[in-house]
Amino acid sequence: MLSDMKLTDTQKEEKIKRIADIAELNDLLSMHPYDLSGGEQQRAALAKVLLLGPAILLLDEPTKGLDSFFKEKLANILRTLTSQGVTVVMVSHDIEFCAKHGDRCAMFFDGSIISSNTAKKFFSGNSFYTTAANRIARHIWTDAVTIGDVIRLCKESS
């Protein structure tokens, strides 16, 4: 990934180490990619892209194969990137992840965007495509979208 970059070998090694730290891949660098688990392969793919320092990051199902711990880590990585000015566009069926961490969500159908809003408004206003927490609690709280929302509202109600 870094072969075309005008960096010294030391700079390349430092960059690889920094990105491997972020993706928690240091212990796996000597392994062949086919010997990695699905989640590890996802993290390796993300690391390869991050080595290039993209201004726009396009992700297709980035949480596939990831455990809940690394999903939270991924959310932090993406949040850090966006705070540094990187635009992140993600396609995902992981509704819970999108509801919890997305800024804006949209639904595509037949090649067009049919619905778009902030994550909270998108999922609370959607009867069919929404989170489990919203399906369970929407008759009590219309803005309960994530499990965290339900817990917070329960505490406020008691």
Give the terminus-to-terminus CA distance. 54 Å
| Overall pLDDT level | 90
Oligomer: single chain
Strand proportion, as a percent range, falls in 5-15%
Structural class: alpha+beta
Radius of gyration: 19 Å
Order of strands in the sheet with the most strands?
1-2
Helix content: 40-55%
The backbone outline, from C-alpha atoms, is elongated
Main β-sheet description: 2 strands, parallel
Order of helices and strands: HHEHEHEEHHH
State the helix count. Answer: 7
Low-confidence runs: none
* DSSP summary, beta strand count: 4
List keywords for this structure.
single chain, 158 residues, alpha+beta, two-stranded parallel ribbon, two-stranded antiparallel ribbon, 4 strands, 47% helix, elongated
Any overview of this molecule?
By secondary structure, the protein is α+β, with helices and mostly antiparallel strands. Helix content is 47%, strand content 15%. It is elongated. Helix 1 packs across helix 2 (38-51). The termini are far apart. The mean pLDDT is 90. It has a two-stranded parallel ribbon with strand order 1-2. Strands 3-4 form a two-stranded antiparallel sheet. A hairpin with a 2-residue loop joins strand 3 and strand 4 (112-118). The chain has helices spanning 9-22, 38-51, 68-83, 95-101, 119-124, 132-137, 147-157; strands at 56-60, 87-91, 104-109, 112-118. It has a domain at 102-158.
